[in-house]
Structure formats: structure tokens, C-alpha cells
Amino acid sequence: MKDPAVILVSGGMDSCVTAAIARQESAKLAFLHISYGQRTEVRERKAFNDIADFYNIENRMDVSIEYLAKIGGSSLTDRAMEVADADLESPEIPTSYVPFRNANMLAIATSWAEVLGASAIYIGAVAEDSSGYPDCRPEFYRAFEKTIETGTKPDTDIKIKTPIIHLTKAEIVKKGFEINAPLHLSWSCYRREDVACGTCDSCALRLRGFRQAGEVDPIPYE
Fold first, then answer.
1. Buried b (16+ CB within 10 A) or exposed e, 87-99
2. What's the domain range around 143?
3. Buried-most residue among 31, 53, 92, 93 (CB within 10 A)?
4. How many other C-beta atoms lie within 10 A of the C-beta of residue 80?
5. Nearest-angstrom CA–CA distance, 161 and 155
6. How many domains, in total, are found in the chain?
7. Is residue 173 part of a domain?
8. Do the beta carbons of residue 190 and residue 76 sit within 8 Å?
9. Which residues of 100-137 are buried (b: 16+ CB within 10 A; e: fewer)?
């Protein structure tokens, strides 16, 4: 890919592997990190910068949309709500769901992509999470891509790339090791910034993925 590509990098495992894939597919990368008043904002920003440094990314942007914390409705942003322990078999949307977060992030990524003349936006969405997070479904990204087509300049052509959307967490871990993604620099915990709690939704999914892949998670756990 000759045109630049914007990569949404939260600092988590999925975005880390997505960034590694984008690195293979595009020579020009722009890393975008978006904070939204989440509990582990500082640690996630460190992970973002560490991953960007690993790939020698000079074109990086770190922005905040803390209005999502003011809107509330998620245990990630509302300190009055408890981050529940994971129940990976539950069909219910977990309290960690941040209402329509990914649409807000994609809108910002689209603005930057259009200015850069980028042809793609990469995001580490995983359909395995879609039972809990409706904005992780493939149909959501197809619809948003249509929105981009409708709402940008006539000569703008930006595709949304979701290279790991159909993979399981175990397959994502295996892919990460195959392409030397810096998983040791990533951070997934919803609760803590010093050591991962191991019991929130994100930690539980990550740990299960490593276990099923037959690999050892390199980050510290409580």
C-alpha cells in the first residue's frame, strides 16, 4: 500500500497485533491513540507510545474524548460503577461497554485520514467480542465505511481494515507471535495500571487466548 494508513492503537493486545499486520501491508503508518477518560488511561497511553517507538513511528497523534466519561454508562469511565469480574459465557452486554465508543473513534480517524490522504484505517476489532460489544460486529464496520464514502470529499477513498475481526483470541495470540508483534508492550487490563488484575473481561479473554494458544502472557498479573 503506497498511501498512508491510519492505525487506531489503544495499546491493547488486539490493536498491537493489528499494528503489526498494518506494518507488513503499508510503508507509511500514522498511529492514533484516543483516550476517553477510562480508568487505565495513563497505562494505555504508555503502551501506545511503547508500541509506536517499537515500530519507529514518527507520525503519531494522542487525543482525548473525555466527553464519553461525562456521558457515562460504562464501568470503564464511571467510578461509581464497579468493573465486574468476567463472565465469558454470559450473553449480556457487560458494564464495560462504552456506548458507541468505536464510532466516535472512527470519526476522528476518518478526519485525520482524509487530511493525510490515507487510503485505509486499521482497527483491531474482534467479532468474538461482539456479543458483548455491538460496535465490534463486521456489519458495523461495513456500515461505517459507507458513512465515510457518503460524508467525505468525492475524491476521498478510505477503507476500514479489520484484519483480525474473524479470529479467536487464541488465533490473535498465535498471529502476534508469528509476526513478532510486541505483545510484551501491550496492556489490556480494565482495572489496574501497575499489574493486570487477571479477572476483568479483557484480562480473562486475553489469558484464555494465551492459554489456548499454548503461550505465556509476558505482562505481569496480580
1. eeeeeeebbbbbe
2. 5-168
3. 31
4. 6
5. 19
6. 1
7. no
8. yes
9. ebbebbbebbbebbbebebbbbbbbbbbbbbebbebbb
pLDDT digits (tens, 9 = 90+) for 46-79: 999 999 999 999 999 999 999 999 999 999 999 9
* 86 inside domain: yes
Residue 159 domain-assigned (yes or no): yes
Q: CA dist 140 to 14, 24, 119, 135, 200, Å?
A: 18, 25, 19, 6, 25
Residue range 165-213, pLDDT digits in tens? 999 999 999 999 999 999 999 999 999 999 999 999 999 999 999 999 9
Three cell numbers, residue 152: 467525505
Q: Would 43 be classed as within a structural domain?
A: yes
CATH number of the domain that 49 lies in?
3.40.50.620
Local confidence band at 90 (pLDDT 50, 70, 90 cut-offs)? confident
